[in-house]
Amino acid sequence: MIGFIVNPASGxxxxxxxxxxxxxxxxxxxxxxxxxxxxxxxxxxQFAMDWSNETSExxxxxxxxxxxxxxxxxxxxxxxxxxxxxxxxxxxxxxxxGSGNDYARGHGIPLEPLxxxxxxxxxSLSIRQIDLIKINHRIAVSSIGVGLDxxxxxxxxxxxxxxxxxxxxxxxxxxxxxxxxxxxxxxxCSATLSIDNKRIKATKVWLIATANIxxxxxxxxxxxxxxxxxxxxxLCVVSAIHRAELLRVFPQVYKGTHIHHKGITFYQGRxxxxxxxxxxxxxxxxxxxGTTPVTLExxxxxxxxxx
Length: 307
Hints:
With about 300 residues, this protein is α+β, with helices and mostly antiparallel strands. Helix content is about 30%, strand content about 35%. The chain has 2 domains: about 1-125, Probable inorganic polyphosphate/atp-NAD kinase, domain 1 (Rossmann fold), CATH 3.40.50.10330; about 145-300, Tumour Suppressor Smad4, CATH 2.60.200. It contains 9 helices and 17 strands. Strands 5, 6, 7, 8, 9, 12, 13, 14, 15, 16 and 17 form an 11-stranded antiparallel sheet that branches. Helix 3 links the parallel strand 3 and strand 4 (about 90-95).
């Protein structure tokens, strides 16, 4: 049986509309399912934990919402599997109904909800084992941002214009507007990275993005070579670039052509430590996750997903 975890508030109410479409299809096809609607933070995580229990009749868990919803659902499954590592993990599916939907892009899941539902309902279900990025007791499925993008995530989540852009179906523009706002006053600083015990010092650091998939921020290819099943995290460090130059280079991120800029460096690793001369904001899949210093760890092939 499929268990749907639905965030009706995602995408400024788009989640509720999407669920009505999905439910009509499920009823017309007489498909057995269970549904839980979230009403607050961490609800999706708890529902996923409950359904991950071996005694639950749910055999497949599907998140319906934005990147924050899939983030919570994945954390719930991860926690349940950590508590009881012996039981058979249940696969996680996804129906995009948010503003960014980077997880869907990164795994080739259709952005159209009804097409994404067909992936979940397919008789020849395709299951893939993917890596996760761990900070303390939580995991990210897509990306972790430190510095400028951490601050942008904070501003975007608090911004009134996010709601407007979501209503217009232009959720990705929230990130762009927040970038312009934050960039005007943001101060760079020096940072030290330790990647698999290799120490790297960087000056005038704007951001450090650690990615499991190529996309973040609503369609930007921040780490074009990121592979969620290679056992490695892909890091993008942007440093020693003038403010105006950063603005000029920014549009290239959508095509992934920023990789050739001299101020942008890429690394790969399994364990990453990041420290800076002042505390820097951190986001996990767009959700705030404290400040530096921080240690990231790749957990290889630990989550089963439907693609």
